[in-house]
Structures are given as structure tokens and as C-alpha cells.
Design a protein that fits this description.
By secondary structure, the chain is mainly alpha-helical. It has 16 helices and no strands.
């Protein structure tokens, strides 16, 4: 009851703030809608439709059989868990959560497996990390590959950590009989389901972008930053707080701060792996009524951010000599020579290596 009252009071203040700052809210809303319409919808929607078709046709389970030798020794999970991991890495937030929810709803994985898979499969995608953050914000694509690699390593380390913490809860994968479905209605069902999910994502992006703008306008970030200004700039601290709410806004703010490039990037690395409250909200909305432990999932994203940042701190001195001079971040999306096909090099190489390794062990045991 007290929680409901507190939420009601917060909603009243939120509505009052919206009425007091209509111009700022309108601009923030327009930017959020642009981000959703121009970048999220065209890049994520086709992946969602394709993954829905994969699972409804039963092809996901066939893949799981071959990938069992890969997932079992590393994560102590069934082979089908590789589907949300690989496709989540390729398409980005919140695709890993979407695929995991679908697998659980169709009884292809247990609740314990779903909880474990979520701890490492829901991550930032290569197009966003390399194209938007590294190239658009920092003017250096190579930094994006480093951020992407550290995100993958952080996710794998988090999955291994959760395997050690909850070892007895994971069941073994057994292929289930595929029930025949109406093929003529497969594409309409996949499109409708994907549109519903992508609409939810757009709503969360809009809401949290407005929240970040309100926090900025009313000086909440300025009040909270005072104890930390001796260590980092006020713009950096505001970017971290904003990024904890909405990842993209925070990453851009960090790139525009006056702090050193290493300090900027290690903060961005944490935000990309953690995802922010907006991504958490999107994931919880997609998971719906699946009774996962939300506290355990949030803790896994914090571990993911910490592990990724540690990996970045070790690898950054190796990569730094090979980077070009960064282009000044005067525009949110700087036009530079960049070929999108290289965006997927690291995750595709990882997927190819993992697939070959799994196939080798599968045929070796048969």
C-alpha cells in the first residue's frame, strides 16, 4: 500500500513537471521518437520477426542439439541457450530477453535456465556500439570494437559466475517434439508479436528520455554531483547519472565531457553493459509475467558492467596506439568514412568459432 502511495505521489510530481516545462519535454520527446523511428525500429524489427519464425518452426531446438557441446561446459546450460546469446549479441537490447521469454513460454527451457540465460544474453548490439557510440560520439570506430569485445567478455564472465553461484538449478537439454503449426499464419503472428514488442521499447525510450531531461532542467544532477566533482567533471557525473536512466543519452554526455578519453570510455563501457533503467524496463516489459527474480537480473547487469570495465582497463593500453586522433564531438552523429559491414566482424567471428567448435565435439561424440 505504501509503495502504491509513493508511486502515486511521484506520478503527480511527474505530471506537474511536464506542465511546467512543455518546451523542454517536447524537444526531448521528439529526439526520443527520432531515435526509435530512425534507428531502433529498422534495425531491431527484422531480427525479431526472423527469431520468432525460427522458434515457431522448431529450428531453434535443432540448433540447440548441435550447440550442446559449447553451452554445457561453459555455462552448464542446454544448447538452445546459445540462440539468445548469439542473436542477442548481433541485434542488441532487448533481443536476448525477447528470445529467452519466448523459449520459456514455449516450454523449451526451464525457469532456472531462463534466469541464468538472462544474466549474460541481453547486451548492446554491434551496430549501436560501433556505429553510434564509437563512430558518432567519439569519431573512432576501433574504440567501438574494443567496447564490443569487452561487452562480450563481461557477459561471458557473468554467465560463468552465475553458473558457480547457482549450479544445482540448471537442467540438461532434451529435444522436445515439435508440434505442427499453421504455416499460413506464421508470418502474420511473427509480425504482430514483433510490432507489440517494438512498441513497448519505443514507449520506454520516450519515457526515460523525458525523465533525463526533467532531471537536467530541475538541477537534480547538479545537486548530486557535488561530492564527486573533485574526482571527475560535473558533465561526466551528470552523464553517468543520465546513462543509468537512459544509456544513449548518458554515453553522448560522457563523450562531450572534459575528462580524459580513458575515463570517458570506461564509463561508457559500464553503461553499455549495464544498459540503464530504460533497458531494464524494456526487458521487464518483454518478460511480462515470467516469474524471474528481478533483483538477481539487475545484479547480473551490474556484474556485467563491472567485468566489462575491468576488461577494458586491461585492453585499452594495447589498442590505444592503433587509434587515430578522435574527431571533435560537435555533432551527435559525425559524418566520417565508416563501412557498416565491419560492424559485425567481432560477433560474427565469435559465433563462427563457437559453431565450429560445437560441431566438432558433436560429431566427435557421435
Amino acid at each position: 500500500m505504501r509503495k502504491n502511495n509513493l508511486l502515486g505521489i511521484c506520478a503527480c510530481f511527474f505530471i506537474f513537471a511536464l506542465l511546467c516545462q512543455p518546451q523542454a519535454i517536447l524537444m526531448a520527446g521528439q529526439n526520443a521518437c527520432y531515435l526509435w523511428l530512425e534507428r531502433v525500429l529498422p534495425s531491431l524489427f527484422p531480427f525479431m520477426v526472423g527469431c520468432q519464425i525460427l522458434m515457431e518452426t522448431g529450428f531453434a531446438e535443432k540448433i540447440g542439439i548441435y550447440l550442446q557441446p559449447l553451452m554445457q561446459p561453459i555455462f552448464k546450460l542446454s544448447g538452445i541457450a546459445a540462440l539468445p546469446l548469439f542473436l542477442g549479441l548481433l541485434s542488441g537490447y532487448p533481443m536476448g530477453a525477447k528470445i529467452t521469454a519466448t523459449l520459456y513460454e514455449e516450454d523449451k527451457i526451464s525457469l532456472a535456465e531462463a534466469q541464468h540465460i538472462l544474466s549474460f544474453s541481453n547486451n548492446a548490439g554491434p551496430l549501436f556500439v560501433v556505429g553510434t557510440v564509437a563512430t558518432g560520439f567519439f569519431g573512432e570506430p576501433l574504440l567501438g570494437y574494443l567496447l564490443l569485445l569487452c561487452g562480450i567478455l563481461g557477459a561471458i564472465l557473468t554467465g560463468i559466475l552465475y553458473r558457480m553461484i547457482y549450479p544445482s538449478q540448471i537442467s540438461n537439454f532434451t529435444a522436445k517434439t515439435i508440434q505442427s503449426k499453421d504455416i499460413t499464419g506464421l508470418l502474420p503472428r511473427s509480425i504482430a508479436n514483433s510490432l507489440y514488442t517494438i512498441g513497448q521499447i519505443g514507449g520506454y525510450i520516450l519515457l526515460f528520455s523525458i525523465l533525463v531531461e526533467l532531471f537536467t532542467v530541475y538541477g537534480i544532477f547538479t545537486i548530486l554531483e557535488k561530492p564527486f566533482t573533485p574526482f571527475v567533471s560535473s558533465a561526466y557525473f551528470a552523464g553517468m547519472l543520465g546513462g543509468i536512466l537512459e544509456m544513449t543519452t548518458g554515453a553522448y554526455a560522457l563523450s562531450a565531457s572534459i575528462d580524459s578519453l580513458f575515463i570517458q570510455l570506461i564509463g561508457v563501457c559500464f553503461l553499455l553493459s549495464f544498459g540503464g533503467c530504460s533497458i531494464l524496463g524494456q526487458s521487464f516489459g518483454i518478460l511480462g509475467d515470467i516469474p524471474i527474480s528481478k533483483k538477481r537480473y539487475v545484479l547480473s547487469k551490474i556484474f556485467n558492467g563491472i567485468f566489462s570495465s575491468i576488461c577494458f582497463a586491461f585492453l585499452y593500453p594495447i589498442v590505444l596506439p592503433h587509434t587515430k586522433k578522435a574527431i571533435p564531438v560537435t555533432h551527435m552523429f559525425t559524418e566520417i568514412a565508416f563501412s557498416p559491414k565491419f560492424t559485425f566482424v567481432l560477433p560474427w567471428f565469435f559465433c563462427l568459432f563457437a559453431l565450429l567448435w560445437a560441431l566438432y565435439h558433436h560429431f566427435k561424440n557421435h
